[in-house]
Amino acid sequence: MIKVIENGNKGVFQHGQSTQNIIFDLFGVLVIQESPHQLQQRIARGLRGPSIRPVNLAGTLRLLQLCKDSGHRLFALSNLSIKKYNEMLLSPELNSLLSFFDDVILSEMTPYKKPDPSLFAYLCDKHNLNMSDCIFIDDQADNIDGAHMAGIARTILSQDFDLERIRLRLFEFGILPFGKQCDIDLKTGRA
Questions:
Q1: How far apart are the first and last CA of the chain?
Q2: Cβ–Cβ under 8 Å, residues 29 and 144
Q3: Does the structure show a pLDDT above 50 at 131?
Q4: Among 6, 36, 127, 40, which Cα is nearest to 76's?
Q5: Strands of the 21-24 sheet, one edge to the other
Q6: In this structure, is residue 188 part of a structural domain?
Q7: Which domain holds residue 91?
Q8: What is the pTM assigned to this prediction?
Q9: Domain containing 24 — which CATH number?
């Protein structure tokens, strides 16, 4: 299920108007934790690496590249632990995904944790962002509520890992051009 939530500010955002900042949650939107069963199967096959993996590597890289190609800054805001994040950096796939972000803010690095509106304010203050120029994408409704309380009106609740629907919602917000695609080199993570 995916919902575009505008926090009651209908008519404020005009189609085609450019938002410069897209804030993604990592866990549950772009990456997923393997189940214990999946982890055991991978280890039994002699495969190593972090237990966190992209939901759909090619689709995720395409979406992030389209956002970058459209001139938008990308940020990740996550309650993921520093330990798990460091594990992600060891994976070439996840490292290529993370390379698209202008900054990754982990709540463990701050005094705040999502859904606390102060975490959103922290990110915006750190990068001198206007909350009205931000879109927040998360898989948890309470985190969406926290973004709204902080002043980020445009949000996307994505609970089904459907990256194409996220892309379509970004088009509806006027953030991405309709139908534009890009090919991704999965080795480099770039178009």
A1: 29
A2: no
A3: yes
A4: 127
A5: 2-5, 154-158, 134-138, 21-24, 73-78, 103-106
A6: no
A7: 2-172
A8: 0.77
A9: 3.40.50.1000
